[in-house]
Amino acid sequence: MRNVWMWAAVWACWACCGVRAAGDPAVTPDEVDVLVVGGTVKGVAAATAAKQAGAKRVYLVTPFTYLGEDMAGTLELGLPPGDQPTLPLVRKLWSGTAGLAAFDYTPSHRSPHPRWGFHNDWWERLSEPGKPSNPTDGVYYEDDIAYACELRKTSKIARIEVVVFEKKGRNQAKHPREGDAATGAVTCRVLDGPLKGQTIALTRQDKAGGIGGDAQLLGVDAVSWQAAVGAELRQVEIKVVKASSAQHQYVARIWFHLADAEKISEPPSPLKVKRVLDRELVDAGVGFLTGTAVRDVFRTDRGEIAGVEIVNRSGRHVIRAKRTVDATRYGALTDFGKGLAVVGGEAAFSRVVLAEGKAPFAPGMKVEPFGEAFPISHAGITGRLYRCTFTLPMKDGTYPSFAAAEWEAREKTWVDGMLDDADLLVWRTAAWKDLETRIREGEALGRAVASAPAVAGSAAFNPSSRLPVWGEYDVVVVGGGTSGSPAAIAAARAGARVLLVEYLQVLGGVGTDGMILGYYDGNHCGFTEAFKKANREIGGRHGLYRRAETWRKLCREAGVTVWLGAMGTGAIVENGKVVGTEVATPLGCGVVRATCFVDATGNSDLAAAAGAATEFLSAQEFALQSAGQAPHRLGRDTINSDFGFVDDSSAYDLWLFGLRARAGAPNAWDLAKMPDSRERRRIVPDYAVNAQDVTARRPFPDVVVQSRSRQDSHGYLTDDFRFLSESSANLVKLKRETSLSAVFDVNVPLRSLLPKGLSGIAVVGIGTGCARDVLPMIRMQADLMNMGYAVGTAAAMAVGQGGEFRSVDLADLRKKLVALKILRPETLAWEQDVDVTSDAVLAAAVKTMGRDFTGTHVVYRPENRARALPLLRAAFTAAATDVEKQNYAVMLGFLGDATGTEILADIVSGRRKIITFDRTGAFGGGGQPMIGYMIALGRTKAKSALAPLLKALSGVKPGASMLTVRGPTLALEALGDPEAAPALAEKLKVFGAHAVEKATDLPPLGGYGLGPEMDACIKELALARALWACGDHEGLARKTLESYARDPRGVLSAHAKAILASERGDVR
Questions:
Q1: Which of 13, 514, 810, 936 holds its CA 20 to 30 A away from the CA of 373?
Q2: What pTM was estimated for this model as a whole?
Q3: Which DSSP state fits 924?
Q4: Would you give the distance in Å from CA 480 to the centre of its chain?
């Protein structure tokens, strides 16, 4: 048997961390003075006390995605009745200062933006105390708008301020929804207090500063309207009047500035707990890493702990420690591997829920409301915290037994008015102590270990290759998100014994914890429609918990065994077949074996651990769909976010992204425990669906899902085919749209979900195998739910074939999926692949593409390109029209042939106009054609290409958009001419240096839109990459790339390292 763990990239990750600045809080060390295991408040107190007492190297690890699991994770947020905060850390948690009055508001009508949901006021952003983070952070109105505002309490207000966005729009006739935006007047009518009945006119001030994003590039100005008040008030009506000359307006913030800053003393929200504890460790200089469990404990010959082996999304790492502190909730480090000390086959537990309306109820369960300090009110929704205590059967103290109890606890504590529930179940032992006692114990432990001598005796740091086997199943699904939960339900309904492993404490992924509770695009059919019906019928007033309960109910009814808070971290492979997975939990690690596996991690974690080839970032053009981490507002449903890049396969990058997101989050109850990533690591499959397949709507006999979506790229596309594709999409006028949108149908085959070279495993979700630019069209929730259910159905069939997905009867599978309405009946006739490679098909495609690109999906297929070249040269020579000459020239250029160089050079230099034809439904939309002509010209490698490309580069000015930078840099990178190096170096100098050395040098993240930080970095990297390909100049490209290689932002660092490792002139 061969054990395969998180492959070589694991060690690359640790090495990568090692070259970063030593002060980075998450850099994983090999040896420390004090190691704290557990991110409880006791652990944070111990780590900071040890550092303050003189320990030089202090490091903390926790299996949870945040600090404070014993407060924020349990919702045990209070002090004993009658107690007041006395310890400094508790005072930080309880206290604060407000310069703005908190208030709730109701608009006279809702925002009607027809296309961009982030311009609708879904999450009541106008009352946020933070500045608007981006030009997209404004609420769209086509007319005047009034807001009924009620302050949480009567307060003396110094002034009222309303921030709006103004911009010049595009041609109103062509783009009806994108005209000018401006506000003409703002007034405030006072409804109570000494100024009752008065109307105060706000005055337009200078432009408001500090607005992030592409404000300058988009021509957006933030404008502040203000008025002095100087009186007490509580209820007002704010009216914002659209300028008569504008087509619409954007309202961004309403602020009531207090006359005197108020000191606040109240129990903290979960988000505040996490923020305060983050800040506590960062300020103390303590290194820490979230999402990291202990896999093994090393003891000296005297029995003292000398180190641990940790495991996380990046892999495994050994840390030696002079002293350790067990700050886990139940002594999991001290008694490692023993589990909970359960006596008598049962244990007492408690779980806290926050509910609106009635309290939870279950026979034999004691329900205690928290004290009067805890009613939680937001936007007219009032909830109360309840501690529910009960006794549950526990077969033993192992994690599987604990997981079963946790699953039963959720059954007992569900209530239809649920606003939040504890992530974690509390074992009610004598060891459970109040908050200040736990902190005092932690501080005492920290001081003691800081001055204690190192552990005595010798220790062997040899990680165990033997772990307890926790179970054997027919099908194991790793990842309980959008695709994983349906996969488990489908397999169980088909009769398989199924285990579902999910590292969060809730099922549903981005559709629950990620706060994306609505559907954007997607093919709404099959299981997706069945789920929506079940979700409507289950009751529950608030979307997140109604959805979570629906997933739990469907799993329970199907007989799925579910382990929450458990991470699949390794694979066991025998003769090329995945036969087991290692599972890491807060109570230790174990192995689960199965006939077949479904990797639903969304990041191909299990497949990668088994040795599958994967792809994510490379030395080619940097492009990544942006991610966010959504705030959790009580009672709110969908809250989208989009503000940065993250590598979900890196524990370090996840830690950094979460740290910045919590720091920059709005004034919310909590923050999602996971990033809403739109692009992650993907497998290299048996066959990757590509852009040409999408354009042809290619049928496959092993189709498992038929996706339907716009090309929602959240960034930009990089596939060459965006410049060569013929029109193929359905042009649909969607709800509230003013123009036709290109909606693509994509047939996704089973072979694209199977890692090349491995058996016994299929990958679902956004970790599946497809061309990068196809992903935006298959990643919609509605489609991923159906994908998961289809593969779960196939997994149950594969059990009878020894776990081999490739042996499943495809005709039978299609029949099952048609019956489930996941596939359309037409698929029943898809018995074999269509011909896209024969000489006859290729010759016909070359002939037709000259007119309007019809047939390019055949010509530009990778397997056809070499054979297409002579046909294209002949067609170019025989072309009778200018459009044919142009089209053949650009195709030849992309294939590296210089036959059409003269035409391409004339187009790029402006001597020849591009002959356009309708490409509305083309892959990529047919936009920015000049970039395509530049790239084609560069790929000819012709000397005559240099002058027009340098001229294009000269027009790139500081502050230019990435679209302006892309064309010349990609073309010169492809050309690789050393004569271009000096000009590229000069541009690189002008665009500045934006890499950073330490994570703590980075600002918070939040809002919607990438903002200037990443925009500047991407442009700088594009110039450096082109300069590197042209041979560098005065070492500037190397200097720039090496600075990014040390950058703590993982995606930028990975890209820079890939470029440095490439041969000059051979980046693409």
A1: 514
A2: 0.92
A3: G
A4: 16
